[in-house]
What does this fold into?
Amino acid sequence: MVPSGRLSGMNLSLLGYACLAAWAFILLGRGFFWLARDRDDRDAPPAPARWPSVAAVVPARDEADVIDASISSLLAQDYPGPFRVILVDDDSSDGTAAVARAAAERLGVGGRLEVLAGAPLPGGWTGKLWAMSQGVARAEAGPDRPDYLWLTDADIAHRPDHLRSLAARAEAGRYALTSVMVELHCETLPERLLIPAFVHFFQLVYPFALVNDPKSRVAGAAGGCMLARREALDAAGGVAAIRASLIDDCAMGEVMKRQGPIWLGLTRRAHSIRPYASIGAVGRMVSRSAYAQLDYSPLLLAGTLAGLALTFIAPPLIAVFGSGGGQIAAAGALLAMAGSYQPILAFYRRSPLWGLAMPLIGLLYAWFTLESAIQVARGGGGQWKGRAQALARTA
It folds into this structure.
């Protein structure tokens, strides 16, 4: 009979090896996502012979605090082709539309901006997608239908050369969808702890190299900035094809990849101007859609939490309290964990020492995921701008 203490030690050793095996798969089996090599400042495409026409569509609801900077950056684009901006005001109560108009007048380009008052939200739609669909319909209504639709959020500011870069890449690759993960706000202590990890985990779930491979079934996009070929979007069924999706960007990537190749990468040509002052604020951003990512499945939730425990929580515990080969394996998992985090930390210009916080970060993201499921169970899932949007999928 094997003594219980020895059996416990054997189990702990096996768990240590399992941790290392999990990290080996993460490092080698997910398109080397952690290297963060897919960026728009590498392999810049040439300028097209003819610059395509573009209409930017900006859905906005109560964004008065950020809309000036966002709209101003769009109207200041150094773009050689035809370009206009449509802001869809989704029943704002804070004067969002007035602030946007004032920005256009201040820049002397009032004619380039159109502000559209959004219609009431119908059942079966999320608020952002309903506003976006109205902006797309407006852009396509006249005789000068744009070649591309630039779908961008109201809390994103763009460098003047951003549209030029997006259009050149889209034309060179004949992409149905070209999107970039904008540089998120990362100044406060909670942001430094959690924001680079958000991008790191996003790349783990949607490895950019696989998204960009036409032969791969992996599809995704970054909703803050997407340049969609109009004909491809129409062929995909328009925004209505994803009308109830909480994770609308990745749903858009999936339907657009059926129409042709897509491209997703990191950028510093655009950045989020919405700060997160606390861990709770970041947590609310994550939990708004985390359970939707798991298709509202308790089984997938349990599997995800178990996976996070194996990859982030177990390694430091076994490395401290284990023994023998299992302890060494767990220490190897810790090194892999911290090492894989370095490229995205470098992109965000943060200290490599943040890699030591990965076990804590993993624990916090596990809690955010569980909290997302709890919110849905309480009838408040997908809460954003006063709407419980998880309910749209069943409306």
In short: Residues 1-7 have pLDDT under 50 and may be disordered. The beta strands are 54-60, 83-89, 113-117, 148-152, 156-158, 177-183, 225-229, 262-272, 383-384, 387-388.
